Fold this protein.
Amino acid sequence: MTASAARHYDLLVIGGGPGGLAAARFARRRNPELKIGLIRSQERSVVPCAMPYALDRTISADDFLKSDEVLLHQANIDLYLGVVESIDPENRSLKVTGSEAEAFTYDELIVATGAQPIRPPIPGADLPGTHVVKDAPDIHAIAEDMKSASRGVVVGGGYIGLEVAIAFKNAGLESHVVEMLPVCLGNVCTELVARRALDELVEHGIIVHNGQAAREVLGTDHVEAVRVEDTVIETPLVVFAIGVRADTRLLSEAGAEIGRFGVVVDDRMHTSLPHIWSVGDCIEHRNFITGEPANGPLATNAVVQGKVAAVNVTGGRREFIGFINPSVTRLFEFSYGSTGLNADKAAQAGIEVILGQADAFTRDKPFPGSGPISLVLVFDAKTTRIIGAECVAAEGVAERLDALTLGIIHHLTMADLAEMHFSGHPPQTDVPARMAIVNAAEDAMRKAGLL
Ligand SMILES: Cc1cc2nc3c(=O)[nH]c(=O)nc-3n(C[C@H](O)[C@H](O)[C@H](O)COP(=O)(O)OP(=O)(O)OC[C@H]3O[C@@H](n4cnc5c(N)ncnc54)[C@H](O)[C@@H]3O)c2cc1C
């Protein structure tokens, strides 16, 4: 096909995940005249974070599918379903297969190809009956296998793995989690909070094989069992949730700089190639606190970055400040979350910390719905600034972590947080003397000799 037959766009976006969609839609909001095209290999865009909840029918399988009509067509963004095979940065063109058009040219290109889930390099890891969790077809295949299974094994005790394991349990399967670390959620929470998560899982009947690695998936035509260290767990259903790897293929082959975590971008989300930008799970930027190269495969990051890129390709200036990675999940009765650096990660980065802790209630104790809340704040011992937090509570975890993330962004100190003013109402909050953030900040001040 000749270049003249190629379809031309002012802005072309590759990827229909949160990053690509945010970029295309925000660019449209800033410029109604721009000719925008979006190419996506997925048949339907999804809300990935909602997908595990379709497995036990908390939501229906359709509820996590996004509407192209609302998101793209009504915003006058042309959608192409197909696979981008290659990018030619010199001629600002793309080759695509499986789509109504095979060649495209662009003025500006935003690449949001996301990340691929990792299957462990162990024998049998791709046998029928083994799955990863990434897209709608994965969820449909797992749901189908769940119909005839009485037991399911999840390998990986992070957020996604636990959400799947809980869905297994809720759907009546015997649910196993195999986790290499001594606790679940150990990548994002310190032992203190993560141990609470482990206790809650066990109390609710999830069988956790912690401190153990899956060594082999056994079976001939289909999975029959997983060998975990010295134990063999018989099962027809295995889900791997051990992490993701940035999908950098297109930009790597086009000659862009690729770092340890993904496509290297500057603060404006520009890659090392002219007129090519990149956002979402496929990129590498830096950790906001340490300044070291980092990633943050979260939809919340992808959307912020998509907007940053959109502003910059439409003539404005906006910068991504770096990864802080606030995240939260819910197990059975409690939510668990963290933001910034926990004590372990701070130690790895050579930062000496002071921890502030508080235990309180989410509402005044006699009121219905009241439950315990535990909060840990992490402060840089030298500057007394907040650099991280972890929280477990029956409710209100995300809101507290969001406030604390703002504190991290604006370099608030333990004294600033101890001065925080709160709204209070006993049916909705704890009593004023027991506000968890204030009390944890004061605890840190006491340890620092400042109170
Ligand atoms: C089960 C699950 C639960 C999650 N829960 C949360 C949560 O609670 N909170 C949170 O913040 N994050 C969560 N995440 C992570 C979040 O989903 C990702 O961070 C987010 O989807 C990344 O968005 P993205 O746009 O970078 O990439 P993706 O969503 O991975 O989208 C990539 C897009 O690129 C397209 N693409 C790739 N290669 C090509 C190609 N060659 N040609 C054309 N198109 C291509 C794909 O079709 C897709 O549309 C969860 C993820 C999963 C899987």
